[in-house]
Write a structure and sequence with these properties.
2 copies of one chain form a homodimer. By secondary structure, the first copy, chain A, is an alpha+beta fold. Chain A folds into 2 domains: 125 residues, PurM-like, N-terminal domain (60s Ribosomal Protein L30, Chain: A, 2-Layer Sandwich); 169 residues, Alpha-Beta Complex (Phosphoribosyl-aminoimidazole Synthetase, Chain A, domain 2). Helices cover 32% and strands 24% of the residues of chain A. In chain A, helix 2 packs parallel to helix 3, helix 4 packs across helix 5 and helix 4 crosses helix 8. In chain A, 53% of the residues are buried. Chains A and B meet through helix 1, strand 3, strand 4, helix 3 and strand 5 of A and helix 1, strand 3, strand 4, helix 3 and strand 5 of B.
Chain lengths: 343, 343
């Protein structure tokens, strides 16, 4: 029997192969696989559904991840997917596979982070499944949200000449992860692991306790702006912008000098001898919103805080390009974090 | 710092502790934790949500579980929860943590079972998350369904004198599991593991490829019957009937001689020197529907096929009792399969 190694396909290749023949047959299924969230319509408002599976050793390391933070992050990364559809998260279900190493107090810590996130974002915990795990800690969260039909934003709506914006800054979460990994190696075996993170709190917070950009979605709504396309940056700016372009059948020009990078991110990249643009393009886990708006909104967008114009959409035949600081055009590639790729 | 071992609380104790202070704050959250599915209302029909986490080594053993069957079962056990609310499953999301041992073809087999179940039950696959797993194969499915507001059935509606019915027969799935485990031990180490299961197909099918009782829900609807309470039997008849009684603040009388048991189940219990009533009460994974209807429907219920009257609801002070074949009354106990209990 033929046995194809999954690494030869990677995450997106595997998903493609498994789901290419899946058709929607129910009248209530509006949008299936391929965006930040699925959409179902049971009358009334549209219901958005997104789900994330987080596995110990793959997505988090309990050596340096406080369980309260992990609970918080498990919730916000799902909220982020709902905001990326221009929706409002409303409910989550929480499934946990609990390894024997964890105590009741550990799980309570996890839940306290989860509950805090839910309180801040106005989301209810409505169900889930709890079981033991022979192996690592397993977290599966599904988030249910709502969106108005005419205001739902997909990945596939970007048009030629649209402006590309991103919220916040990029690369900090990745540098936070590098920092934690380095300290873990240095302190390996030391039970009283208390590294000095002074002055780097921003990087750690971006990695360990990211927020979802509810504020950006609200700001756009208050200003009557509905993006033509939107995605949240989980895999990395490159990978996620390429999702928008391929699903919109469009190209793009992205300007390196416009990519927003925090001072701490730049300093830490320097320390690690990493190219900070590469970090911002491919680091991922930023949970910022990447979206496009029509060109004629340029002036209006100029007045909005917390977002940055980073490029514009082009015809598909021009491809997806990064314009470097010295004016060179380079093809944009997805080098985002891919947990199923070959190492 | 205090560290309480999770086994001291068990699954239900832990869930209680974690969720006792969770309140619903959103107008759209109708029903939270504590039933077969949660209910949200975004206008129009009510939306039901249920989720199940299946972990290798805990919930399934890939030595004797064909991946196609596992895919089928992963879907139907979720559909079963939606039917237990008198609802209709409409969509699922599928999250997989894939261990390196599995090939692309293995995952395709899993998906073929999943797709088959979805086709048969009229359900769409609308999303999910796919990642690698350092450890075992991890399956997390969330099912979205609909229900009419006045026809939704909860666990908490059973009233004194209501009749208790169960669909199909009980204990077969558990005996199927025993059979598979025994053959696994016998053939341990033999790569060409081909045990002879002739004449025991029913037990194996009940364990490996269970159906959800859509037919029973449809039959009740066609006859204009809305149960006062309902649950699907996943933990075992005892445990799940006790859920109905405690949530309805009621007692019950369950008659041993009326518990439906298939001939093959009885024979296999005999072979294994097990008490077949214990198997039917506590085996679990039957995915049959357990429900109550008002006494005055007795005659009407008599004409329905595929269900069995097994007892009736009593005042809470009478407790939950099993009437044995020789007329003794015994207190009913939950000895259902509890993956977080102390061994």
């Amino acid at each position: 029997m033929k046995r194809t190694d999954i690494a030869t396909l990677g995450e997106f290749g595997l998903i493609d192969r498994l789901t290419k023949d899946i058709k929607l047959t129910q009248k209530s299924s509006i949008k299936g696989i391929g965006d930040d969230a699925a959409i179902v319509d049971h009358g009334g408002q549209r219901t958005l559904i997104t789900t994330d599976l987080l596995l110990e050793g793959i997505h988090f390391d309990l050596v340096y991840t406080p369980l309260k933070h992990l609970g918080y992050k498990s919730a916000t990364v799902n909220f982020s997917d709902i905001y990326a559809m221009n929706g409002t998260p409303q409910q989550i279900t929480v499934s946990l596979g609990i390894s024997k190493r964890l105590s009741v107090e550990d799980i309570e810590d996890f839940y306290s982070g989860l509950k805090l996130a839910c309180e801040i974002y106005g989301v209810d915990i409505v169900g889930g499944d709890t079981t033991s795990s022979f192996t690592g800690f397993t977290v599966s969260i599904t988030c249910i949200g709502t969106a108005e039909e005419e205001k739902t934003v997909f990945r596939n709506g970007a048009k030629d000449t649209d402006l590309i914006y991103v919220s916040g800054d990029l690369g900090a979460s990745y540098m936070g992860l590098q920092l934690l990994e380095r300290e873990k190696t240095v302190f390996d075996g030391d039970k009283d692991f208390q590294p000095d993170f002074a002055g780097r709190e921003y990087l750690l917070e971006r990695q360990l306790k990211p927020e979802a950009r509810k504020d950006i979605v609200n700001m756009l709504a208050e200003n009557g702006i509905v993006p033509t396309s939107m995605i949240d940056i989980s895999d990395g700016l490159s990978s996620d912008l390429l999702h928008i372009c391929s699903q919109s059948n469009a190209g793009c020009l992205l300007f390196e000098e416009r990519i927003p990078i925090d001072y701490q991110t730049a300093v830490m990249a320097e320390t690690f001898s990493m190219n900070v643009t590469t970090v911002a393009l491919n680091g991922g886990e930023d949970y910022e919103l990447l979206f496009t708006v029509p060109l004629h909104l340029h002036e209006k967008m100029n007045n909005l805080k917390g977002i940055r114009l980073i490029g514009h959409i082009t015809p598909p035949e021009q491809g997806c390009c990064l314009v470097t600081r010295d004016g060179q055009e380079m093809q944009l590639r997805a080098q985002g974090w891919n947990p199923l790729a070959e190492e």
